[in-house]
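Field reference: sequence -> structure
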Amino acid sequence: METTRQNKIARLLQKELSEIFLLQTKSMPGVLVSVSAVRISPDLSVARAYLSIFPSEKAEEIIANVNNNMRSIRYELGTRVRHQLRIIPELKFFVDDSLDYIEKIDELLKHPDNDASRQ
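Structure field:
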């Protein structure tokens, strides 16, 4: 169960990371990166950010790029939230593939002639 402080910091980090990725992806036409969720550890030292990436074929490439530039992203985040947070948490990025999962379920529901309906 997350505390109120964890939720506030997670929302702040999500908003700021979204703006950072928006600025960074302007130079990449046809690519959209959004921060779907941020979870922060109870001691506020580690933040796990879940990125929703469109098109999903480029997700692994973009996550690798983000992880390679993690220091600069954390520095940029630190300059934005330095008045709200004393310690900038360590960042970890993951692909949020929930939209792909929803799309797959929709596709399975639309086509009743798949293997699952024959059982």
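Note: The beta strands are 32-40, 46-54, 90-95.
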